[in-house]
Amino acid sequence: MARPDESELIYDWNTRRRRWKLAERPIEFHDETLRDGLQGPSIVDPPIEAKLRILELADALGIHSSDVGLPGAGPRAVEDVTALCQHIVDQKLSIRPTCAARTHINDLKPIAEISQKVGLPIEVMCFLGTSPIRSYAEAWDQERLIKLSIEAVEFCNRENLPVNFVTEDTVRSRPATLHAIFTAVIERGAQRLTLCDTVGHATPDGVNNLIQWTRNLIEGTGRDVKIDWHGHNDRGLGVVNSIYAIECGADRVHGTALGIGERVGNAALDQILLNFKLLGEIDNDLTKLTLWCHAVSQAMHWDIPRNYPLLGDDAFRTATGVHAAAVIKAHRKGDDWLADRIYSGVPAGLFGKRQVIEIGHMSGLSNVLQWLEVRHIEPREGLAESILEAAKRRNRVLSSEEVHDLIAEFP
User: Fold this and answer.
1) At what angle do helices 204-221 and 238-248 cross, to 10 degrees?
2) Would 49 be classed as within a structural domain?
3) CATH number of 25's domain
4) Distance (Å, rounded) from C-alpha 192 to C-alpha 112?
């Protein structure tokens, strides 16, 4: 009998009352792995060869832009940024380079020199703290902030560098301050504004309020200026806020592979991509998503948690009897689509993964039979029952080695 249509098997409350796409325009993604991500205190700054590979994989995923570093940080940063930009030119990659910079000539000048050297426009992401708490700590006043902002944008204009003005801690900044700075940089040619949740303070309501306010300000200027959203994950809302940002009118969202970054990290760009794919908002080929994340994990000495979405060792493992039985029955029907969805909100096969049935103290006989079948082991009479009995005496899932030992010991 033919399987019913997908809509008959899954009632999707996610799309209830939704009569349009989340975004009225193409969604853009920006990768901060090679810059903001490296600020994580447990992250190892990898060699240039690893960075080139990470950049290539980001390009293959259809990520639109990547922050390739802050050249003002010193000679090594200049060398790496130059090599990454040259690699984009040599390999004819589609991904666009950006560089972070303080609103200071010492940060801006190296970007202009690299851009001229490789013959490639580099989007400058000028950042400046604007929240009252930061201004108080630094003894800054609004006049000084506006002066620094204008000088930075005017320098970039003279050097023909596209400007993205980044206000640090935007979500805790006063409207009057943001209005003064945004208006000043827009009038002088900034093409983008990046709204930053630098300390992970925002909730979805905050995202909506800030983006709507900024969108109205931009419309009032009559200029075509895009909005970026840059989120951190201190409240565990990094990915959710990024999805909200697009729905509320942002043009581009930032993130890092595996959510690496300062403190608890940035919004996880891999999870953002996964969700927009499952929501039907993008058609990017994400078959190399796991490769990209594993390349970052290895290069930066960052272990992927076992329960991490899609990539963790446990993402598609089950040893629970009832759950495993349902997956096994789907496989018995020869229906991988069904097996991928019966107990998973993320279809493993769509991302090059597969469902894995294990044996443990909460398993049933079907777990053992499936485990043996997958490994082409003939289930001699009583073998499966013996393995299950041994598993029931444990307080955890059996390792592959332990199951093989039980098979070897079976008379």
Assistant:
1) 30
2) yes
3) 3.20.20.70
4) 18
Q: Does one domain contain both 369 and 291? A: no
**Domain final residue, candidates 299, 325, 346:** 299
* pLDDT tens for each residue of 213-255: 999 999 999 999 999 999 999 999 999 999 999 999 999 999 9
Q: Sign (positive/negative) of CA torsion 138, 142, 147, 150?
A: positive
Which residue ranges in the chain fall short of pLDDT 50?
none
Q: Which two tokens stand for residue 380?
A: 């001699």
- Three-state secondary-structure class, residue 111: helix
Amino acid at 137: A
Is 6 domain-assigned?
no
**Domain identity same for 208 and 63:** yes
For the stretch 263-275, pLDDT in tens is: 999 999 999 999 9
Neighbours of 286 (CB within 10 A): 21
Ramachandran angles phi, psi of 339, nearest 5°: -60, -35
Residue 309 covered by a domain: no
Residue 307 belongs to a domain = no
Same domain for 218 and 362, yes or no, is no
CA–CA distance from 166 to each of 127, 147, 193, 198, 216 (Å)? 4, 15, 6, 11, 18
What is the residue whose two structure tokens read 């390739």?
68
- DSSP assignment, residue 21? -
The pTM for the full model equals 0.93
What is the C-alpha to C-alpha distance for residues 195 and 227, in angstroms, rounded to an integer?
7
Instruction: Give the pLDDT of residue 19.
Output: 57
Find, among 264, 263, 265, the residue nearest to 254 by Cα: 265
Domain residue limits at 266? 21-299
